[in-house]
Design a protein that fits this description.
Keywords: Membrane, Transmembrane, Transmembrane helix. It is a single chain. The chain has 132 residues and is α+β, with helices and mostly antiparallel strands. Helices cover 25% and strands 42% of the residues. The strands form 2 sheets. Strands 1, 4, 5, 7 and 8 form a 5-stranded mixed beta sheet that branches. The relative contact order is 0.20.
């Protein structure tokens, strides 16, 4: 029995169930990405300012100019005495209802940081928000 005959031997009901499950899982993953996790946004739509910069602590507050976006998270990286802060936004919803944010970072490497940049989705999209 070749492969084609084996596939034909599978009941159509099982195929429909498997395809439906794959489709539903794909939709759930996309919905999570859009409504919960979000995506990195351009620095042109964000305003932010550090409110506390210490040897091992950084607090940054800000907002986004787009009212339909809800703050969903951040990622930061320290490279050559520069801190790059990337902000994620999703479509505003009950989980991420507002575009305003306050980020508290505690890291011993902050004592070496001389400049803080916001970074958008692209590595060349950066905006200086603080320098020592």
């Amino acid at each position: 029995m070749n492969l084609l005959n084996k596939i034909r031997a599978i009941p159509k009901k099982k195929i429909v169930i498997v395809v439906s499950i794959i489709f539903i899982i794909t939709i759930l993953i996309l919905a999570y990405k859009i409504f919960i996790y979000g995506h990195y946004v351009s620095t042109k739509v964000i305003w932010a300012k550090p409110t506390r910069v210490a040897d091992n602590e950084l607090i940054v507050k800000g907002n986004i100019s787009d009212s339909a976006s809800g703050y969903s998270g951040y990622k930061y990286e320290i490279v050559n005495e520069n801190l790059y802060l990337k902000l994620r936004y999703s479509i505003a919803n009950k989980v991420n209802p507002s575009g305003s944010f306050q980020i508290d970072i505690v890291d011993n490497d902050l004592k070496d940081v001389k400049k803080i940049f916001l970074q958008g989705g692209q590595s060349e999209d950066i905006k200086l928000i603080w320098r020592r």
